[in-house]
Design goal:
Number of strands: 28
Radius of gyration: 20 Å
Strand order of the largest sheet: 1-4-7-10-13-16-19-22-25-27-28
Strand content: 15-25%
Structural class: alpha/beta
Largest sheet: 11 strands, mixed
């Protein structure tokens, strides 16, 4: 165990033998730090937080501090961070309010500089939250999603898997999986580049494109088509899309119909900073 003598680590914290805690890092009571993790100088880990294996918490980052709403001191509130996550400088992740789901971050995610993940949020795996992006309370982000720098995801909104939110966007409604969203919060089409890079073949991408064209003929969701796809589609990706849309409670982001051609060459990825 490499705990710097100038780190402040509670006696009740559990720190793996090969974890590193740098000078001036603060680890409150009832915290667990997994094997191979590193807490850089000046990082803060709040009470009730679990940090998984090989995570990196960079200088000034705050993980598992009390939420900004509800009853901040409520007993039993937690923040659970999975494995191989990178939490960059001055990012903030709040623990839950003690009244609902635990604030939970999955595995292999990047939370960039000054990003905010508020209370009771739930993030899956392989997600990028860009610098200065804000996830308000109760937000759900599914696997492989990307949130651009400075974007705001309002409370209770959901981002489906493989979604891409543009830099500076404001999202108030649920965003269907496999799509990309403009700054105005309107869905612009399939997230083609990400789907191709993830191994989705041409037939699957075409099927998704056709499904969206049917589901949003005038930019808004057609419930009759949703029922039809639920009953007749056998493609797993379509079934996943149907489940997501059927679970929407806040409404679904508008669809512009400006879908990019599936056959287009890979474009350079937008830098998420």
């Amino acid at each position: 165990m490499a705990i710097h003598p100038m780190a402040i680590v509670s006696d009740s914290a559990e720190v793996a033998p090969d974890a590193m805690v740098d000078a001036f890092a603060v680890v409150e009571p009832h915290v667990r730090i997994g094997p191979g993790a590193r807490l850089w100088s000046g990082s803060f880990i709040g009470s009730g937080t679990t940090i998984g294996a090989r995570c990196q918490v960079h200088p000034g980052a705050v993980v598992g501090h009390v939420p900004q709403v509800g009853q901040p001191g409520r007993e039993g509130s937690r923040c659970v961070i999975g494995d191989d996550n990178v939490i960059r400088e001055h990012a903030v992740i709040h623990r839950d309010t003690g009244e609902g789901a635990v604030t939970r971050i999955g595995n292999r995610n990047r939370i960039q500089v000054r990003a905010l993940v508020s209370h009771n949020c739930s993030l899956g795996d392989n997600i990028v939250i860009g610098s200065g992006a804000q996830l308000m309370g109760q937000v759900v982000v599914e696997d492989q999603a990307t949130v651009g720098a400075g974007a705001t995801i309002e409370a209770f909104a959901r981002l489906g898997r493989f979604t891409r939110v543009s830099t500076g966007a404001r999202i108030e409604l649920d965003v269907p999986p496999f799509t990309q969203v403009g700054r105005d919060g309107v869905v612009r089409g399939l997230n083609v580049v990400a789907l191709r890079r993830a191994g989705f073949d041409l037939a699957t991408r075409e099927a998704l494109s056709q499904a969206f064209a049917r589901l949003f003929p005038r930019g808004v969701l057609d419930e009759r088509v949703l029922k039809d796809l639920e009953q007749h589609s056998r493609l797993p990706e379509i079934a996943s899309l149907v489940r997501f849309l059927s679970g929407c409670r806040r409404g679904v982001a508008l669809w512009s119909g400006d879908d990019a051609p599936i056959e287009e060459a890979d474009s350079p990825p937008e830098q998420i900073v």
